[in-house]
Specification:
Chain A: Forms a 1:1 stoichiometric complex with pancreatic lipase. The complex is a heterodimer. By secondary structure, chain A is α+β, with helices and mostly antiparallel strands. Chain A is built from 2 helices and 5 strands; from the N terminus they run H-E-E-E-E-H-E. Classes of the chains: A alpha+beta, B alpha/beta.
Chain lengths: 117, 469
């Protein structure tokens, strides 16, 4: 039930973004839908330059955020495409206690670790 | 016809050379340079003090969460308040449209009170700031005179020296501080947070904030593009003993977000709307506020231009050190040499917790294959580790050395090891391997140098740890 709520809220945002897109799509480089900077509103991680669309709680707005560095909190890649804790930077592994409940509620948190250490 | 000309001349002469006089504060004229110059074409006189209603809202460690209003006219309010003559006093003055009860002023007081015991006074002149810009730009003369009057009362009745006073002014408030300093010489310090540009840039020193207004004047420039056509609100020219231009002083990172993302801000719609209107301009007080908590996080590198700074031509800090932008800039006071270059450059982060620490990183590649891709390096030290920072992108050739200047979000302290990672932009079926033979790191602040070696070569997206050698 929780994940569906999370999708309803951004849907309104997507509509708003789409309506405003023609008016605001002035520059090529930094997009309104794709290639978003840190701090910009997003719906899916693919939209972000950083590759992480993040929110603090289920009803919180989702914004692009940097990926987690080593020893920072993280969650493994999920099917939802939005995160409470961003996935790790490349080369690192999110060392999390994976559980089914955690996978459904998107709360499989862990710490980023170097698999070679 | 002649009648109209005479009438016209009469009106013109009536508009020029007018003067108003107020009790306590003295007279204000609209003669040049106050009006009728190229920079200040419209004739305006400041409003009377009662219409502006300048308020002094005092915060101390005894009352961090509520303000006590003090007034120099009714001296009993000062005696009855928590004002203490054994402490320093810092005034915070807001700018155009703003008001003294706005959160950023009291938040700044709270942060100061968490690190030092001071009298923190927010100056509220909202009635005088919420009008036409040309009027507000003249009302600052009365507000400056009110502060000078307040300081005079403190000196005469309490023997409190203006040398213990620090005035922090944002935008028009910076020129309020300048006016107060001109009227009451000997003020210890004035900080100008992006002093307003229209009606002040290129004007004589008595009109605007200038280094002659206090013993030490430091300025942060965050919106110094020309008002026409770029809508920059901040003054462009250096006006203090130390002038800081974070991120080049014109465009602040985090201020070019799309409209919705900017307005629907993490700190609420009101903060977002303020940023939507004047993001660059408002960054100046946010940096200052953060600098209170991060004494070494805003080092300003002396440099001739921002481009040279970005290219690393002004790295590292000179031997006597770099000044801190913001609250601790006065620690550099004794190192200022006369008539020397006063522009300082640095970079900041794009969101809250703005400080960054600059390092120079050189990477010498090892391996056999020449590939296209990028190289990342993360620093590990006694105080923590950074995220991965890109050192180079493009053709990666073994034995070549790539140099980059990175602004780390963490002060890692003494660097103990580094990690290297490279990535091919496209899948490569030959599965090439690359490594880093040596990585050298130089910290900008204390000029410390570190050297790390590696003998391995790795496939893409594999972290390679290099230890000291």
């Amino acid at each position: 039930m929780k994940p569906t709520m999370a999708k309803v809220l951004p849907a309104c945002l997507l509509l708003a973004l789409l309506l405003l897109a023609p008016a605001l799509l002035a520059q090529e480089e930094r997009g309104l839908i794709m290639n978003l900077d840190t701090g910009e509103l997003c719906l899916q991680s693919v939209q972000c330059k950083s590759g992480c669309c993040h929110h603090d709680h289920i009803l919180g707005l989702t914004r692009c955020a940097p990926k987690a560095a080593e020893f920072q909190e993280c969650s493994p890649k999920t099917v939802y495409g939005i995160y409470y804790k961003c996935p790790c930077e490349s080369g690192l592994k999110c060392d999390a206690d994976k559980s089914i409940v955690g996978a459904i509620t998107n709360t499989n948190y862990g710490l980023c670790k170097d698999p070679r250490e | 016809m002649l009648g109209i000309w005479i009438l016209g001349l009469f009106l013109l002469s009536a508009a020029e050379g007018k003067e108003v006089c107020y009790d306590r504060l003295g007279c204000f004229s609209d003669d040049a340079p106050w009006s009728g110059t190229v920079e200040r074409p419209i004739y305006k006189l400041p409003w009377k003090p009662e219409s502006i209603g300048t308020q002094f809202l005092l915060y101390t460690r005894q009352n961090e969460n509520y303000a006590q209003e003090v007034s120099a006219v009714d001296k009993s309010t000062i005696t009855a308040s928590n004002f203490n003559t054994n402490r320093k006093t810092r005034f915070i003055v807001h700018g155009f449209i703003d008001h003294g009860e706005e959160n950023w002023l009291s938040d700044m007081c709270k942060r100061m009170l968490s690190v030092e015991d001071v009298n923190c006074i927010c100056v509220n002149w909202k009635k005088g700031s919420r009008c036409q810009y040309t009027q507000a730009a003249n009302n600052i003369r009365v507000v400056g005179a009110e502060i000078a009057y307040f300081l005079n009362v403190l000196m005469d009745d309490y023997g409190y020296s203006p040398a213990h006073v620090h005035i922090i002014g944002h935008s028009l408030g910076a020129h309020v501080a300048g006016e107060a300093g001109r009227r009451r010489p000997g003020i210890g310090r004035i900080t100008g947070l992006d002093p307003a540009q229209p009606y002040f840039q290129n004007t004589p020193t008595e009109v605007r904030l200038d280094k002659s207004d206090a013993e030490f004047v430091d300025v942060i420039h965050t919106d110094s593009a020309p008002t026409i056509p770029n809508l920059g609100f901040g003054i462009r020219t250096p006006v203090g003993h130390l002038d800081f231009y974070p991120n080049g002083g014109e465009e602040m990172p985090g201020c070019d977000k799309n409209a919705i993302s900017q307005i629907v801000d993490l700190d609420g719609i009101w903060e977002g709307t303020r940023d939507f209107v004047a993001c660059n301009h408002l960054r100046s007080y946010k940096y200052y506020s953060d600098s209170i908590m991060y004494p070494d996080g805003f080092l300003g590198y002396p440099c001739a231009s921002y481009n040279l700074f970005q290219e690393g031509k002004c790295f590292p800090c000179p031997e006597e050190g770099c000044p801190n932008m913001g609250h601790y800039a006065d620690r550099y006071k004794d190192k200022i040499k006369n008539n020397e270059l006063t522009k300082f450059y640095l970079n900041t982060r794009e969101t809250k917790n703005y400080p960054l620490w600059r390092y120079k990183v050189s990477v010498t590649l090892s391996g056999k294959s020449k590939v296209k891709g990028y190289v990342n390096v993360a620093l590990y030290g006694t105080n923590g580790n950074t995220k991965q920072h890109q050192i180079t992108k493009g053709t990666l050739k073994p034995d070549n050395t790539y140099i980059a200047y990175i602004d780390a979000e963490v002060n890692v302290g003494q660097v103990t090891k580094v990690k290297f990672l490279w990535n091919n932009n496209l899948p490569n079926p030959t599965l090439p391997k690359l490594g880093a033979a040596t990585v050298t790191v130089e910290a900008g602040g204390n000029r410390a140098q570190y050297r790390f070696c590696g003998s391995e070569i790795v496939r893409e997206d594999v972290l390679l740890t290099l230890n000291a050698c």
